């Protein structure tokens, strides 16, 4: 009864807040990047046959893959516009070491983006449209390494000078390329999305181009804003997301009913 007594002006105000809040939650502050440029490269552990955020087949892990920093990836959970894209990454120099090191050789690797590197307040996946990471770049590729598909000698080392062999972070150049240059291209089982999950939660094109045929943003689609307060895990389990949307949908319908 109390709800029915609320003034029409107040109802309008609440509706305005709801609509405006929705717009705020779904506006996309994603980073747009050129097809060639500079970035940082880190590495992380991805178990063999693991199905990561994009929902690319587990077999994709038998070839070089990488996670892309969240605001360039284009979603804060599940698939995003970067999913399935292939990049040629070339190691240039280290810069956290003292002094920076410029190896004589500049090895390159072609990776497919299969995973999300979550936005955090520090670390190398923290670039947003308002500023780069501490390497001065807006993109970080997090290479799945070690990997059965990448030589253990892939990263140049200079242990006699620095006293350690893993520099952790590299300054690199990247180029968006066609996936037919990716090592997994001739293995149909390594291409595309997992078949046993609903098309709703996966998107991993075999060969996305620069404009069309790419994945939409799962976050934009579901009104999930990037969360800079946590960097836990690579994705929220689907049942949890479903419960959340069910709860908000229920609350919304109750609200509409009473208004
Ligand atoms: C990747 O980049 C290197 C230069 O760093 C180049 O030599 C190589 O041809 C490129 N590979 C592809 C597939 O574009
Ligand atoms: C090792 O690093 C030092 C310092 O950057 C450099 O002077 C030296 O040439 C490097 N050695 C090799 C083999 O690249
Ligand atoms: C990312 O973290 C570094 C420190 O690690 C900081 O200097 C930089 O401003 C941060 N970038 C953003 C966009 O917050
Ligand atoms: C990365 O390499 C580019 C091209 O050589 C250079 O302009 C830039 O300063 C380098 N960044 C770092 C952090 O070393
Ligand atoms: C994206 O565009 C660049 C420049 O137009 C082109 O060189 C590159 O091959 C394109 N990548 C793909 C995957 O089509």
Automatic annotation (TrEMBL):
<protein>
    <recommendedName>
        <fullName>Expansin-like EG45 domain-containing protein</fullName>
    </recommendedName>
</protein>
<keyword id="KW-0732">Signal</keyword>
<dbReference type="Pfam" id="PF22514">
    <property type="entry name" value="EXPB1_D1"/>
</dbReference>
<dbReference type="InterPro" id="IPR007112">
    <property type="entry name" value="Expansin/allergen_DPBB_dom"/>
</dbReference>
<feature type="domain" description="Expansin-like EG45">
    <location>
        <begin position="51"/>
        <end position="184"/>
    </location>
</feature>
<dbReference type="InterPro" id="IPR036908">
    <property type="entry name" value="RlpA-like_sf"/>
</dbReference>
<feature type="transmembrane region" description="Helical">
    <location>
        <begin position="240"/>
        <end position="258"/>
    </location>
</feature>
<keyword id="KW-0812">Transmembrane</keyword>
<keyword id="KW-0472">Membrane</keyword>
<keyword id="KW-1133">Transmembrane helix</keyword>
<feature type="signal peptide">
    <location>
        <begin position="1"/>
        <end position="25"/>
    </location>
</feature>
